[in-house]
Batch of 2 targets.
Target 1
Amino acid sequence: MLTKLRSLFGSKPDVPGPSVPAGKRYYLLGDIHGRLDLYEALIDAIEQDDAQSPPAQSEVILLGDLVDRGPDSAGVIARTRQWQSQRSVRVLAGNHEDMFLQSFEKPDILRHFLKHGGRETIMSYGLTKKQFNAMTLEEMFAFIPQLIPQSERDYIDSFEEMIVAGDYVFVHAGIDPAMPLDRQKRSDLLWIRDRFLDHKGPLQKVVVHGHTIFDEVLDCGNRIGIDTGAFRSGVLTALVLEGDTKRMLQTRMDGDEIGVLGIAA
């Protein structure tokens, strides 16, 4: 059931704000972090919303950090691939995908990855807690290429870095405010924080991003942060952009049940 809430974006201004191309509808999902349960519920909500909305060319964009911390990263990746076979779903690379892929290169990087949610990711591919705890770092480094096939890693490595849509740009972490969009570094797009978050002036386009957790969606005018910390808060957010309007869909864990909320523009 889709419950409607008050707007978090304020009243619609008299002057049109930033917009996406006419005839398009974008569903932008924040950091999933292995929460397949919230993700499945949000997929259902998006499909229901899209079916009930006026006809448009709709596109889903995941803002990265599909993996780590939550219990089922492998399931999130598999469900994303399945969803892509049914509709247009594009995926941006996050810093946790970056760590995941680099952990196959050196044991020291694997050690860092395991401390930041990688343990849950590796176990989601079928390794038991007992098996995990029995391995040394070197044994784990030798084993994970057998556990997680190259085809899976190639798929994750194919994730995009940036998507532009009208007056908006979609990235995982943010952008370097001092650089034009065509000169951004991958490291900033996936990892930047303070230099981007502290910037108060206008940017080349309005940036929709994840990476930094907020209690609620944060619309600063020049950027919109939609990472609501699904892995620990139980709240996964999708921002819906159409024309010059903004609204949201959220799935929220309430006890043992997941509720779906619609937040109007």
Note: The chain has a mean pLDDT of 94.
Target 2
Amino acid sequence: MDKINLPGTHIGITPTGWTNDDFPLLGNDIPFEQCVSEIALAGYEGCSIGHKFPTDVNKLNAALALRGLSISEPWVSTFFTVPNMAQQTIAAFEERMDFLAQIEGPVKTTDIGVAEFGNSIHLLPISLRGSKPTFTEGQWKDLAAGLNTLGRLATARGFKLVYHPHMGTGVQTQAELEQLMRVTEKEHVHLLLDVGHLTWAGGDPVAVINGAHGPRIKHVHLKNIRGSVRDRPALASAGFEEFVRAGIFTVPGDKAGVVRFPEILKALEAQKYKGWLVVEAEQDPYGPRPPLYYAKLARAYLKECGL
């Protein structure tokens, strides 16, 4: 493929390939130090914050500095569609910003990833296809109001709220992504485009990048999908965890994947995207290949693309 020119981007990876945040028993015995050391060894600039990362900011800064890493984004789950959870969600977000303000690194941490997990089924052992939540008109209003509040708080402190559409939630499909963008404030609520989740949900990442809401993309997860797992008849009624354990996710550069990365990267180039490009693939770390293999595979692919 032609080389991609994306100045102003940073290449990161999430720690979920080593230890899963949704299902902590996957990779539970892999220590934090191994994870961040292998991230640095594979040639990444930074990573998101995983549940095994130190909660003492001084210890985290020391571990990152030792390896020359930055934090690409932390995560905050929102629960605005659940009654009486708005204030708790806002408090958790503000606490996260207080922590982030103290993080050091070559690249300043500005992005905060969020997704609405009120009514989500992705942690439940039930059919992902047959039980997806659909928000009511009232829930959409509550979600928009809550995200606008968080977005304004983030902007006031120099951060960016980036929303992550996610399988098994009320904002999963391309239509739902576009609705969320329409009902939220474009100055304060931005989009975390996870190309794997969107492809799995039947959406078109290139169309989103080229569409009306493309300029609101401020963070990108480069996640791949194994088509053979997605389409496996035995998984027709599977839950999210069962798909993950079966190997639904993989990295850019894996030939088993179906996500159209050359077209996606070209579209981002046309949009003059600036920000983090973060490799992500929640996989069983004790599958056919170890996490470091996939981290290096993805980094080599992105270098081949010019990144």
Note: The chain has eleven helices and eleven strands.
